[in-house]
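TASK: fixed-backbone design
INPUT:
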């Protein structure tokens, strides 16, 4: 009889611990987030990133850019890089987003002056809310020599919002 009580107690404990583990599952697993993080450091801090979104320069066949979302120290960032030689970008250079509803939204480059075609924008809560609420029709990026325009597809917009929401809830894990 005691053996039966012990066996039942073990089953109850295992069942209860499994339900507790199930409740502690991160939200990310429920929404299938493709966020990746490794042990590499960015300016001495751990970071996570979503897959890049490749964009073709409007009316060009061989010029491309990448838009990628990342998270570092609890802040979300939008990384933008044009894959053309000698594209010089000033600090505070605007990245203009034109939405389907006709609104325009400006994000400013916080990365230092460079001629690698790289811009980094730290996203505020208001930025994230605006980006989640709208569909991007076109992106204009102004550099010292030339202006670039991109037209993200419906899939690009869907992925962008999905990655944004994933990174919003993602917790940067400690270095192992």
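OUTPUT:
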């Amino acid at each position: 009889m005691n053996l039966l009580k012990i066996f039942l107690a073990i089953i109850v404990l295992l069942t209860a611990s499994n339900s507790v583990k199930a409740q502690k599952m991160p939200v990310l697993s429920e929404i299938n987030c493709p966020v990746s993080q490794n042990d590499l450091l960015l300016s001495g801090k751990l970071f996570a990133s979503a897959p890049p979104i490749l964009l073709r320069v409007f009316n060009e066949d061989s010029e491309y850019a990448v838009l990628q979302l990342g998270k570092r120290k609890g802040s979300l960032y939008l990384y933008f890089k044009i894959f053309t030689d000698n594209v010089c970008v000033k600090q505070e250079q605007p990245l203009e987003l034109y939405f389907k509803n006709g609104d325009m939204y400006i994000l400013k480059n916080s990365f230092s002056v460079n001629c690698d075609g790289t811009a980094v924008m730290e996203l505020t809560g208001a930025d994230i809310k605006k980006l989640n609420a709208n569909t991007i029709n076109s992106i204009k990026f102004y550099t010292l020599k030339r202006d670039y325009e991109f037209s993200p597809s419906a899939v690009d917009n869907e992925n962008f919002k999905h990655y944004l929401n994933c990174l919003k809830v993602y917790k940067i894990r400690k270095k192992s």
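COMMENT: The chain has one domain: 27-169.
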